[in-house]
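Standup, Tuesday
Yesterday: got the pipeline producing structure tokens again.
Today: sanity-check two examples.
Blockers: none.

Example 1:
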Amino acid sequence: MRPFRTILGDASVPEAPIREKSPARVSRASAAKYAALGISLEVLLMQYFQTIL
């Protein structure tokens, strides 16, 4: 009896193990840049909502 076929291929062929990705590494300079962008965006949004309310 032949092994059944799946959408991905022959079921008798073992699949390659899925490797976990290593966590992304963010430099301190990048972290500071994104923090500054986040704070400036927050201030900008606060000013915008104060003007429309």
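Example 2:
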Amino acid sequence: MPLRLDRRRFLQASFAGLCLWPAIGHAADTAPLPIRHLWPTDNSRIGPISEASGRLFYAGDLSIGAVSPAGGDRLWSHRHGFDSPAVFRPRLTASLVVTGGRRWLAAYDQISGAE
């Protein structure tokens, strides 16, 4: 079946292309954002992080831990030991960090990292 492009659709597509042209050109010209900090986590991929009391909590494919953004220090880190990665953001209670994967759940102390 041949595609018929009538004048109305041709003009709509042309107008849309002309309107988006500056945005496409501007997006290509922007420089990438600078990296401010790199913290070693022993993970090849981490999920979204959580923040509380000046600490950042992360969970990834191999380990779970906490870092101090002010000093750049890793406060604690533990291998979770499960066969699947942590895929959910660490949830924080008053004293615990709770995180999990598709088939597991783990809880750690926020300060010391003890299970």
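Quick observation on example 2: DSSP finds one helix and seven strands in the chain. The beta strands are 50-52, 55-59, 63-68, 73-79, 91-92, 96-100, 105-109.
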